[in-house]
Write a structure and sequence with these properties.
Number of strands: 12
Oligomer: single chain
Number of helices: 5
Radius of gyration: 19 Å
Largest sheet: 12 strands, antiparallel
Order of helices and strands: HEEHEEEEHHEEHEEEE
Structural class: alpha+beta
Helix content: 10-25%
């Protein structure tokens, strides 16, 4: 059975040389490589080439081709710059000699500075007030559209949706959604592992936020959707084995694309990471 230890291992590519890494594309049940997996593997590959005093503060990525299940992903990491407080790496991920993903990763030594943050949205229920997503789906006999949710059992991650997309009792007029999550086993204190798991989750549900206002007008099967780019910023250390609320919103959609952004909050309301993503959204038969 797939476990959290398996997931952590999959997200940590094997080092082949000083600048080359090999990642496995997991889960034969998936139709294609999950973008969050490539994001996490690229982050860990890049971090392995940087002074240990510096940690990832941002990654900016483009998804270039669909990743194939069952084929290893090769990561080439090139040094762009090493400064006293910042370092920058460029990462190219390839399958069968073709680039499927490109990212720029930036690293920073923690330092003191001015501090403020946007407060957590009002009215968010505490995680204990929401039903576990797997329990809810089993109770209602619902199969998740997101196949990744079938692989992530309760032994791996506890997900609690604020606005489940398949619930008839919840309106979907607004392009906003969110969920609490927590990985359910102790995973140690290595910050890179926690960052990789948050990067993995950051690609779950973000794209679909922009579909919510259109669910009644267009069948989900008629939509061709794919992530085009993805950015993630870490504002402070994160713990993926403690509750985090991922709040997602889509300010605009048009020209066959939608734009989404997200915020990760702790139970105490601290904003620890942010995301932004643009996705391809085509309606089949509309052209």
């Amino acid at each position: 059975m797939f476990s959290l230890a398996d997931l952590v291992a999959y997200l940590n590519p094997a080092r082949i040389s000083a600048t080359q890494f090999r990642g496995r594309a997991f889960a034969d049940e998936l139709p294609r490589v999950f973008g969050g997996q490539v994001l996490a593997q690229a982050l860990q590959s890049a971090q392995s080439t940087v002074d240990g005093a510096k940690s990832t503060h941002s990654i900016h990525a483009h998804f270039l081709r669909i990743g194939m299940i069952g084929t290893d992903i090769h990561y080439q990491v090139d040094t762009v710059r090493d400064g006293a407080s910042f370092s920058t790496r460029n990462v190219i991920a390839e399958q069968n000699g073709k680039a499927i993903f490109q990212a720029t990763v930036s690293f920073h030594i923690a330092e003191d500075g001015l501090s403020h943050q946007q407060v957590m949205p009002a009215g968010i229920p505490e995680p204990e007030a929401l039903e576990n997503e797997i329990d809810r789906r089993q109770r209602l006999g619902i199969t998740p559209r997101n196949i990744m949710m079938n692989l992530l059992t309760k032994d791996i991650i506890d997900v609690r949706m604020r606005f489940p997309m398949d619930s008839p009792d919840i309106p979907h007029a607004e392009p906003v959604q969110g969920f609490w999550f927590r990985f359910n086993r102790a995973i140690g204190d290595k910050q890179l592992t926690h960052q990789a798991l948050v990067a993995f989750v950051s690609d779950m549900g973000l794209l679909s936020t922009g579909l919510r206002p259109h669910m009644e007008a267009i069948a989900r099967e008629a939509v061709q959707a794919a992530s085009l780019d993805h950015s993630l910023w870490f504002h402070s250390p994160v713990r993926a084995d403690e509750w985090l609320y991922y709040h997602c919103e889509s300010p605009v959609a048009g020209s066959g694309r939608n734009f989404n952004r997200g915020s990760f909050y702790t139970v105490d309301g601290a904003l620890v990471a942010s995301t932004a993503q643009e996705a391809l959204i085509r309606v089949r038969g509309s052209a």
